[in-house]
Prior knowledge:
Strand content: 35-45%
Distance between the termini: 55 Å
Order of helices and strands: EHEEEEEEEHHEEEEEHEEEEEHEEEH
Largest sheet: 10 strands, antiparallel
CATH topology of the largest domain: Proliferating Cell Nuclear Antigen
Helix content: 10-25%
Strand order of the largest sheet: 12-8-2-3-4-21-20-19-13-17
Oligomer: single chain
Radius of gyration: 21 Å
Structural class: alpha+beta
Number of helices: 6
Amino acid sequence: PSECLLHSFLFLAVFGRAIHAMARISDEFWFDPVEKGLALRSVNSSRSAYACVFFSSMFFQHYCWTAVSEPCQKEKQLPLPCKLIMKAVLPVFRCANVLERNVEKCSISSSAGAQHITFQLLCKHGIVKTYYLTFQECDPLQAVFAKHLCPNILKVHSRLLADVMIHFPTSQEEITLAVTPVKVCFKSYTEEDADFSRTMVTEIHLSPEEFDYFQVGVDSEVTFCLKELRGLLAFSEATSVPVSIHFDRCGKPIAFSIEDMVLEANFILATLCEAQKEAASQE
């Protein structure tokens, strides 16, 4: 059977946080094992937010992506990618501290003829928890976005970015990122007709020296949803990998990504264009 085995709390917590980050985008996600590793993908209903987290085969203690039906037959790929319901998977990776205390290994497997994926938690004291999650076969999900062509690229430690986002209330739905060659500003986004006497406006300014990499080719001000970014930050903090931000002018997507030797994550979010901002202010 096709199988991958997650070993040690560190990897298990990282994988679990990836699932939770996906849950901020959609109530379902694509589970897509390929020869080089396992990809998790998600897109929201309005297709304004897309996420992909790819775990290299080296991330796992053991990774096998094909099934052999007969010794003389060629190896046969499983009927994947497939789609899983998020609320069925979330209980498997409920919270990191429970995983740390109780779970030693996590096995994820599926057989060629099966209509489910098996998540098995091997816990302390010989306890084994097994979850059989049915899946739906589906077409591949892929976002087309050439982030390397973006004129603006920022690279910042996830801890610093998380510290910035703490200052925005959980009720804040959208924020604006404004950049020039000499400064970066994160600020609350509010419609022009909002009652400012009842609205808390937050602005946080950073200098280029606070970034690991700083390239601003065009002055820009982009507004995007904060919910999906919070999920990525919780995930990236577990990996201690810097976050790269690629973007252009408003109306074009913004990409938040992390990458190291064993995993790569890309969260691509739509940004408000001027026409949308004007419509929001007129409503």
